[in-house]
Design goal:
alpha+beta, GIY-YIG endonuclease, 3 strands, 40% helix, 23% strand, globular
């Protein structure tokens, strides 16, 4: 079964948040960490995984990404803190 992930990245000092969705979280993180993707994450050095949700339905994952992007920062921080209160970098299997 295919797995999709909605994820949140931050920079080294936890000031910037980025929300994305992918079908291969390990590959996507590699791309972010190595600056292989031009744009926001490369420009602001946002490559620390601090939150991830898994889904088997791509449409559900995309809808969740859109939902999270609409949230105010405070609500996103509460979500992150609910599973990762220290904002430690998460590892991917």
């Amino acid at each position: 079964m295919k797995r999709y992930h909605v994820y949140i990245l931050t920079n080294y000092n936890n000031t910037t948040l980025y929300i994305g969705v992918t079908g291969d979280l390990a590959r996507r993180l590699y791309e972010h960490k190595n600056g292989l993707i031009d744009g926001f994450t490369k420009k602001y050095h946002v490559n620390k995984l601090i939150y991830a949700e898994e889904s088997s339905d791509i449409y559900a994952a995309i809808n969740r990404e859109k939902q999270l992007k609409k949230w105010r920062r405070e609500k996103k921080v509460q979500l992150i803190n609910s599973i990762n209160p220290e904002w430690n970098e998460l590892t991917v299997d």
